[in-house]
User: What shape does this take?
Amino acid sequence: MDDPGWFTWDLIDQTRFNPQAMGKMLTRVEDLPNGGRASRLRMFPERSHSNLLDAVHGGVTLALIDISLFSAMRTLTGGDAAGSVTLDLSTQFIGAGQIGSPLDAVVEILRETGRLMFLRGLVVQGDNTIAAFNGTIRKPTKR
Assistant: This one.
C-alpha cells in the first residue's frame, strides 16, 4: 500500500456514492493528547470536488463529515456502520478547503448509548481548520 498506517475506506459496491463522488478515501486511528482516540478519514480533493471559486465545494465537505461519522463508529468501536443512519449533523464552516491537498475529518466519540452515538470533530487541511461539526448516529436495529 502507498500509505503506511492507513486503511482504505471502500464500499464493496464501487457504483455507490462514496467511491463515485468522493474518490479514494483512507482512514486510521490516532491517539489524542487527552488520552482519548480519534478516527481520521482522508480524501483527496480534485477539480471535480471544486466550486466556482476553485475551493472544495461545501457539499463535498459535508459528505466527508457524514461519512467520517461512520468510519469513526467502525474504526473506534467495531460497530456496524453499514446499518446505521445519521440523525443530526451540525457544521460550522471556518475556512475553504483547497484542491490538490488531502482533506481530513478527525472525529472522536463523545458518548455511546444502546442505540445512539454522539460524535464531534474537525475538518482540517494541513494546519488549517476548514470546519467543525457535531453529529448523532443511530445504530442499526437488531434483527
User: Anything to note?
Assistant: Residues 50 and 56 are 4 Å apart (CA to CA).
